[in-house]
Design a protein that fits this description.
Distance between the termini: 63 Å
Number of helices: 12
Order of helices and strands: HHHHHHHHHEEEEEHEEHH
Number of domains: 2
Radius of gyration: 23 Å
Structural class: mainly alpha
Number of strands: 7
Strand order of the largest sheet: 1-5-2
CATH class of the largest domain: Alpha Beta
CATH architecture of the largest domain: 3-Layer(aba) Sandwich
Amino acid sequence: MGLKSRLFKGDPVFEACLVQDAAHITPGAVGRHVTKIHAALLQLDNLDVGKAERGARWYGPSTKAAVLAYKKKRKIINHSYEQDADPIVGKMTIASLDEEMFRWETQDVRKKPEIKKVYATLPEVLNLVRTARVRLFAVRASYTSSNPLPSPQSERKVAEWNWKVHRAADPIAHLHRILGVYDRMNETVFMAMRPGNSFQLFLPSSGVPGEPGDPAYTTLGGYYCKPDEFDPNTDEYKKAIYITPQFTNKVFAASILIHELAHFCGGKEGTPDTIEHRASPRPPPRGRQLEDGLHDYAGMTADEAYRNAQSYQAYCFPESEGKPPDGV
């Protein structure tokens, strides 16, 4: 039987390591597979390795020491030829790492308070995203001369405030792009909620690499990454939304998740569809410019609004976050 964890399953290096002595992973190795070993050691035993080794994907001295510590703690020793643990990832070690990672990725993860709260909040998130889509369809219809059922004026004002539809060269195409992101968000949340789905989209984190106090963070465009794709700088999955303990006490949990889903379902970093932090609707009446933007919320272009996580978040709450201020 092969490996079963999301981290190691299907990786030819580790599948071979499980059954072949010649495929053991030894100090000095370099490659993506070493990054996965780093990630498992950090997640399971908080055994961090040197920054230089992580960046180079190198099985260097600190990786060697971490592997040895992991094996000694579990007494992983092949008594047929050794009396003490060695710093090599062989058959017994990869089997142990895989089993523990599988447990961490599945039942153990959902027992954490912050992850429990995520799954308790997802039905609300799904409803908000689907409602936003329906409202946008109505707005889009109001921009076509062939449709005799315009959206209510109040709904158009909400869309123009959050999406700057009136500033788009082609309002229909602009709304189509936004709907595409909401469609991916809808799909992502639905699949995450589906009973029996073994893929864990939401994973716990101590709070790194997000800013201190961040309740959640994710990879830009993680939707387009492979399930086992890793960021060598953080030793974390790219196709995941990380939830920190701070999330547990947040009142506006659905709003936070929609924000992260926007980042996740936008384009990859550096593409024209990347969804970042362009502007915030707070404080009123004009909001404020954020680190990735050029204007405040009132002054955004249509493209900036499309590429702004705060817009997806605010539009789902038309009576609060997404409500246009008077006189703007």
